[in-house]
Batch of 3 targets.
Target 1
Amino acid sequence: MTTSYRHEIVGVFGDPVDENPTIVMFEAAFKAKGLRWRYQNFHVRAADLPAAMAGLRAMRFRGINLTLPHKIEGLRYLDRITPEAGLIGAVNTVVRDGDMLIGTNTDGKGFLMALKLNANLDPSGRRVVVLGAGGAARAIAVELALAGARHITIVNRTASRGEALAQLINDKTPGKAEFVLWSGDYTLPRDADIVINATDVGLYPRIHERPRVNMDSIRPTMLVCDVVPNPPRTRFLIEAAAKGAKTLDGLGMLVYQGAIAFTIWTGQDAPVDVMRQALSEVVI
Ligand code: NDP
């Protein structure tokens, strides 16, 4: 009988990438499942992405996560992408199927799972406010629209990005969206059901900052969410909770987007509790 010492390789291409904690939840998940798989953080600069993607094919990695600055550029090196990733215009997860590289985007789906499983809220028919119009905001807004959200308000400092996202939702999904230019403190509409900070305001090390929102417009009927995973209890969520709102942190989204990638790669159910525990031990 021959013994194989080979591990299946997955990981993340990013720049910077050293402090990315995703490795911790995947390594814990592989161990819990008894899989001979390894996850590695690869420091890949923008100019080196073509070579890195060719290397991934040559060394037959099973897949890769793409993070900043590769989520959009990565589209060019794939054989196929899912319709949602096409709409969002970015990929965060690539799986190798034979010789084909297939790209998808699990960020928005991870948010939806956290919403349903951790906050027990179905977005169908809801009114949503998304603060920001970058990569995370696009993924979340598109998935919310596809999941039946009734109305999405996109609030962003840079008009071109915000308008483009609202237009994408109106033109390419069943959802309805409007853009609001973000200047000064934004007052939330009274009838908003879900409010999401999809900017990086509050992310470590700038933990004392929070998005410019009129906090008196937060109501107990609202679910206030943050995509920032580190720290999970952002200043925004702490102050929203003090106004009586329910809150949902960015750790759940991070765990579930990883859990979806785990299943895409391995074909197995993800050990979500193990992944969450491993991550919560390394965030501040
Ligand atoms: P991008 O750079 O693509 O977008 C950043 C967005 O934040 C832009 O809309 C930008 O506005 C806005 N923004 C930045 N600073 C401010 C500010 N001071 N005031 C108002 N708006 C501001 O970043 P990403 O979308 O990729 O990432 C955003 C956050 O999402 C990060 O914290 C990241 O960690 C988190 N994230 C979390 C995930 C999870 O699983 N929990 C998954 C993916 C991302 P403008 O257009 O005007 O510049």
Target 2
Amino acid sequence: MQVESPQRGLLIAFEGIDGSGKSSHLRQLAAFLREQGLQVVETREPTNGIHGRRIRSLFTKRELLSKEEELELFLLDRRDHVERCINPALAAGRIVLTDRYYFSTAAYQGAAGMDTAAIFAQNGFAPEPDLVLLLRVPPEEGVRRIREQRRERPNDFEQEDQLIKVDKLFASFSQPYIKRIDSTRERSSVQAQIRQLVRELCHARGFTCA
Ligand code: TYD
């Protein structure tokens, strides 16, 4: 008897500068897709693995690493993420929602002075996403949201001068599956646009989604 292999899943990445609303929109989208009976995996980078935890411990001590070492650490974390989480979930036919992916490396480590084309090439091991939802807010708005809503001081990655460069790099990426979303609008209309884009992808790829 032939065992039917499941259809490959979908990989959807949320990207954007800090304070752009990625994490809460990802959670709401996950809940919506689960209501449709779809199997969803929510994940994020930096991960909770050994390299991801090291990255988080360095958020306010960025000067301890050279920019080359920092890039290396994000790549190690991604290898782990792809091997342990993303690839198995896609093979099992799941819909994977990741809060950040290699576009963040290209934008943030690019803003720190590394070559973005080289960064994309170094991420060749990571599966290309089916959809990137790039949430956009002006950098000063991102910093304001971090301060006011999270009641946190921006960490080393979240300084406005850095985020201006990060935002410019995000704006320069031209992969056809990147959809730009104005995240300064009301949260409900941002979420509605996200759902519409995901619905279209699901229909195109044979996933049932109302
Ligand atoms: P963030 O999504 O803000 O995590 P959290 O909500 O848990 O604080 O991501 C953490 C920071 O890591 C963010 O400022 C961007 C940075 N980062 C990179 O510089 N390169 C990368 O490849 C990734 C994935 C994140």
Target 3
Amino acid sequence: MPTETVYGLAANAADPLAVAAVYAAKGRPSFNPLIAHVADLAAATAIAVLDERALALAAAFWPGPLTIVAPIADEAAVCDLARAGLDTVAVRVPAHPLAHALLAAFGGPVVAPSANVSGRPSPTTLEDAIAETGSFAAVWLDGGPCQIGLESTVVSVLPGEPVRMLRPGGVTRGELDTIVGPLAEAEADARRSPGRLTRHYAPNAPLRLDASAAGVGEVFIGFGAGRDCDLNLSASGDLAEAAANLFSALRAADHLRPAAIAIAPIPLTGLGEAINDRLRRAAGFVG
Ligand code: TXA
Ligand code: MG
């Protein structure tokens, strides 16, 4: 299933066998819960308890690249396995027209983790999605290249807790702050933010961050003008363009079978927070 962020491997959220097949295709640890995708706000409120803060976020960013973790309202609609046994559910209304059409036609929540094998870069084209997990899919929907290219931002909105950012993504911290004030950080406890595995989004070649040039045998991915690089995330230094190109650039660099992939520093502002998060995880630095 295409979405505006990345391609997803989609399954009926209510069907534990279908959900188990998704975990198996990705080789994903089953303690890492999935996002339930729905067509609109009404469908979201049927499965999740959305308080005033969550509703304000939904009004501002849905449909779009924001995932809200909230208490589960309908345990059958999003099965235990999809939630990894948690009493919360991650819900998102994607903006891609084909995703919307699929969700509206199906009528129930659809889990869709990024369609990569666990630990690998997320696919941003149908071709990359097929190369990752296509052999497990019954049907492929071609929605063209993903516009955003980075996964959704995940926030938790739980009773008695501040709104927390669990994963940076397509909606920036600055955009969220304007709706719900300064965000709290995810708790250190890994079970509350289970998506944060050490090596994630990783190409086969090792990744060297904040590089200024290619070393021997390295492919160099640049950012901004004036760099002598093999691939450039954005020659004009545009972070949205860099986000859209990130995972396909990592794949393209990997196809050259380099000793390592060197990548230029990316500013931490705006979408740069999510880009740097993915790069640090791809390099294996973040627990
Ligand atoms: O943009 C996206 O979000 C893409 C597209 C396909 O929609 N999907 C995606 O799904 O990135 P996935 O499964 O790769 O990432 C889901 C993230 C993980 O970090 C997971 O730990 C977190 O959401 N998550 C899901 N349910 C949660 C919950 N109940 N509590 C905390 N985190 C949760
Ligand atoms: Mg993923």
